[in-house]
Amino acid sequence: MSSDPTTHELLHGILKQVSRSFYLTLNVLPAGVRDQMGLSYLFARAADTIADTDLIDRGQRLKYLNQFRAQFRSAEIDWQAIQEIQAALIPHQKDSAESILLQRLEDCLKLYKTYSTGDQERIQWLMDVLPNGMEMDLTRFPGESAGQLTALSTLDELDQYTYYVAGCVGEFWTRMVCAHSPEMARWDVTEMSVMGVRFGKGLQLTNIVKDIARDLRNGRCYVPEPLLQEAGLQPADLLNEDSLPKFRPVLNRLIRLAVEHLNEGWKYTMAIPASEIRQRLACMWPILLAGETLKRVAIAPGLLNPAVNVKAPRSTVYRVMAITILTGANESVATACWNRVREHIV
């Protein structure tokens, strides 16, 4: 990547404008991968913004998503295509951060072109796979409301979806850190990528179970229909809060699956050399906070109420960060912390 400090400053200026919380988290990463991860986040969020701009027809959103994706499949950026995306989408943004991101898209792509060939290829791979999940949301769930509710057909379909939207990020992360950290040279990239995929899937399943009520109102039921049928339920039944007791066995099955994935993520994390404490912390925090969230999801009486936001409180976030900063380098102590969380989930 270019050594010009202005490129670093430009990227971090955009990140601060778009997501201060992600920017603060990003700073825990080693300097060698910080900018690559930050720019990749901006590209992923831009693709998500294109797919989620519901004031634009689905067909148009798919067109613009593929138009954006095409920039990572070509040697040259089609600046006219990017300007078309901006002109069509910026006026419809309700969130100022999303509007700023789209306005700065050309700057982001110019920064991307300053990266090494290897880093560009890794980002190209991510931006070829990740949009599949967004495309799946647009095509698999044709409705935008509870009255047009559609469910996934199989557990395999759910697994594929979680790979597209998060599992592939674990694979990308592995490839990127192994390329830039001498301490990671001993890793088998293929083997660790598989574990990284499980890590990402666990985080996404956590998001799915905690956001189930809001997704249902947007026409999306990520719980596979056969699992609901085993409990004597139809997707529309989950719109009724009184269905929660009947839904609990299905919910617990999905929670256990998330925990299994997160446990592989924890093994992945503990395989990071203790000398790479920044990378360890960057992995420990989302796993432990996902576990804390799953604990609350498992017992939440209002899980099917879209007005209820089930998540770990800020005090828990600060506690997790404080404990791991002190213990993260010690594998046995850190793992005991994860085991305590895991044992209290289901």
UniProtKB/TrEMBL annotation:
Gene3D superfamilies per record: Farnesyl Diphosphate Synthase
One GO biological process from the UniProt record? farnesyl diphosphate metabolic process
InterPro entries (alphabetical): Isoprenoid_synthase_dom_sf, Squ/phyt_synthse, Trans_IPPS_euk-type, Trans_IPPS_HH
Pfam (any one): SQS_PSY
UniProt-recorded Gene Ontology molecular function terms: squalene synthase [NAD(P)H] activity
Superkingdom = Bacteria
Quote the protein name from its UniProt record. Answer: Squalene synthase
Task: Give the species.
Answer: Nitrosospira lacus
Source organism phylogeny: Bacteria, Pseudomonadati, Pseudomonadota, Betaproteobacteria, Nitrosomonadales
